[in-house]
Design a protein that fits this description.
alpha/beta; 14 helices; 40% helix
Length: 361
């Protein structure tokens, strides 16, 4: 009915209405536009009944979905990007935008404290909903099927990938570099393709929410800044599968553990923004200059900037905050800095810098 008689379909079901996979009935959008305009007209000139959200449209094929939405519903739609589940979603806990202000953090309800083994179990498993709906599912089977359907459903609709093994080698090479600077030339040499193809394929992964590109913070008062973004997989389970780890115990003891732990923290923070309808690209950056000085994450909130370090231990030394004074050159207010780590409680390095448990993200 949605395809053959969209007007009757909408009148049959009323509002509010959730329509999943709406891209398969594209004619619906023109009738949804009419319904929205009629409701707005009634609010302004009729009985004054306020127009809330009338339709919730969900679709998994991002490019096909957005092409139709932008054509039919400009000015009438809000877009929410959905990454895999955040830890707070998994535990059905309240999720606010992560702001590193220590006064806000102290008022936040932390998640239940977990031992390192449990943290890495969750990192290794990842956060796709099906893995928590069916906890007995084989991770290897799930991710193998996910990649196969992802390439067929999303990637091939965008570009003509004639050499699927090379694309799989590319995405595996990228997974091995999660938490690191994105260097197209290095990846191109590793995979055996050109840098232009690397950039194009990475753009596809970014636009389909597989990876997130964390941009460097630019400031005229600081010279010789590294201008390449850092790349993070938005599902740590997928990154672990692509890099060949077969258990969380092996992962935890590996040289990869530090960067996958950082990836987990960054992905959780990114999700806290998107899940609250905020654009993380306007608030989250990193810093690195040619002198080797680096800050893992810079969070900009209102007129404040917060330096953040991420460490996979319980008691990092004060040397981890040695670069925090760089933010003084940015001509922005910096109330405090934080180090996100495996400590059990909030501790102060000094009057302005703190270590906080990962449970406060």
């Amino acid at each position: 009915m949605a395809i053959e008689d969209p007007e009757t379909f909408l009148r049959t079901h009323g509002v509010p209405l959730i329509i999943d996979g709406f891209q398969y009935a594209p004619n619906l959008l023109s009738y949804i536009k009419i319904a929205i305009d009629e409701a707005r007209k009634n609010e302004m000139f009729g009985d004054g009944k306020k127009v809330g959200t009338l339709y919730y449209l969900t679709g998994s094929q991002i490019f096909e979905t957005m092409e139709n939405v932008t054509e039919f519903l400009p000015g009438r739609v809000g877009i929410i990007d959905l990454y895999p589940l955040s830890t707070r979603e998994i535990y059905n806990s309240k999720e606010d935008v992560f702001i590193p202000d220590i006064n806000i953090i102290k008022k936040k309800e932390p998640l239940k404290y977990e031992y390192l083994n449990n943290v890495f179990d969750r990192i290794f498993r990842g956060s796709y909903p099906e893995l928590y709906k069916n906890e007995n599912i084989s991770l290897e089977s799930y991710f193998s099927y996910y990649l196969r359907t992802y390439i067929e459903r999303d990637v091939r609709k965008i570009v003509n990938i004639q050499d699927e093994p090379k694309f799989l080698k590319f995405i595996s090479s990228l997974a091995a570099r999660t938490g690191q600077e994105f260097n197209a030339s290095d990846i191109a040499k590793d995979v055996g393709i050109d840098s232009e193809t690397v950039a194009k394929w990475t753009g596809i992964l970014s636009n389909t929410y597989v990876v997130f590109l964390l941009q460097p913070h630019m400031n005229n008062n600081v010279g010789r800044i590294i201008k390449r973004p850092k790349i993070y997989f938005m599902d740590t389970g997928l990154a672990c599968y692509l890099t060949g780890y077969v258990s969380s115990e092996t992962l935890q003891k590996s040289a990869y553990s530090g960067q996958i732990f950082e990836t987990y923290i960054i992905s959780e923070i990114v999700k806290s923004y998107t899940n609250n309808g905020r654009d993380p690209k306007k608030h989250l950056y990193y810093y690195r200059d040619n002198n080797g000085k680096e800050i893992d994450l810079l969070v900009i909130h209102e007129d404040n900037i917060y330096p953040v370090e991420i460490k996979k231990n319980s008691n990092p030394g004060k040397e981890v905050i040695r670069n925090f004074n760089i933010v003084e050159k940015f001509e922005m207010n910096s109330p405090n800095g934080i180090v996100i780590c495996l400590t059990k409680d909030i501790h102060a390095f000094d009057e302005k810098n703190y270590m906080i448990p990962i449970e406060y993200i």
